Amino acid sequence: MRQDEMKKVLEMGVLLSAERDPNRLLDRILNCVMDLARCDGGTLYLLDGDALRFKIMRTDSMGTHTGGDGKDPDLPPVKLRRENVCALSLLEDRTVRIQDVYHDPTCDFSGPIAYDAMTGYHTQSMLVVPLRGREGERIGVIQLINALDEEGKVCAFSEEMVLVLESLASQAAVTIQNTRYILEIQDLLDSFVRVMSTAIDERSPYNAHHSRRMAECGGRFIDFLNARAEAQGRERPFSPHHREELVMSIWLHDIGKLTTPLAVMDKSERLSPAQKTEIRHRLETIRLRGKIDFLEGRISREAWDALEAETKETGATIEQMSTAGFLSDEKLAWLAAVRARTYTDEAGRECHWLTDEESAMLSIRKGTLSPEEREVMENHVVVTDKLLSQIKFPIELSHVRQWAAAHHELLNGSGYPGHLTAEAIPTEVRIITILDIFDALVADDRPYKPGMPVEKALSILKEMADREGKLDPGLTDDFLASRCWEETTGKGA
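The structure assignment produced for this chain is given below.
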């Protein structure tokens, strides 16, 4: 091998090792090999089961180059039979050099000859090099056609060039193999992420599909930001790796809910079932004791009728308050008045209509969780950070833990768990927060409220951004403009 050829092989090896995209890698391999061999045409096949599948084809004199975009050339695969020269090369693990395919009896060249007849091309010399991995695994074949001399005339491939191309083919095979390993590891990680996210959602019917909806909506939002930047002649804000990192953060943002008690996560009412049963029994006791007092003449008919109506109204109102999304000052004042009422039990003791604990739970103004329960619920972000700290993410995904664990932080410092303010909250977290709040507002599977119309949810986002200073105003406007939720929710504003 000449020194300049050796230098070129080394340079190409470095070039190939730096390429991570599998389609561009295959294209680059064929281009490098054809450049070194100074030939007119080439094909790269990869083994697929018991056949070689066309991946990249290029013929310079005819101006054809197919497969570089990731779409395989529209040709039937080549069966692994020795009469096919590319298959023979791989099966016998040897380079095959043909001086003239029209006068070589060793293989069946009916395919190239039929191609020539159809296109007017003339296939003459051929060099076929097998691609095998580091352990000898069959990977594919590079087939080169019509070597060119200094004057551009078709000639035979030289013996010396065989050694050069075999060296480069060996590097190419290992690079293809490494790229496959990386993709397999990435697929494994992606599968794990989706399994964990599904496990979280499946724990509760009230959280079903939350992470999936957010990931789908988030992916479209990122694509919207990229497309708009490109249309405006600006650099895309999210590279493929950056996009993947953010979407994975979205998938994992609620992983901490694996440890959240279902009694808290699924709590659809302020009162527990046991508390509601106890209140119903107590009100029934008050009615019965009132009826006995009436029958025994201790109270009037009017007093008994009023007591019966009041207990029934109290029971119905408590049922409504237990599930209400928000309680007004009027409702809380009514509750205080009920709490102050007393009755005498069978033992002659004076008892309140509601216990301190029942009254405290019914006094929750918004939502269904007590301060203690809310603290348990909010702890899921701390657990998210703890769980993700156990995963050794590759450098391309190094921010997943940070972004996922901070999705409840708000720009004005009122979020949790760190009460971060704007300067400490990256763009990616701001996006996740908008997605999370929007899905929580419109979702039909939340225990404490029905899903609200998109139009109202968007107005709440705007208020949180423009008046309350909790959300990024620019990103919120971008979110509204993207309408990225429509395909996921099937709802329009």
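Interim note for the steering committee: Residues 273-367 form one domain. The chain has a mean pLDDT of 89.
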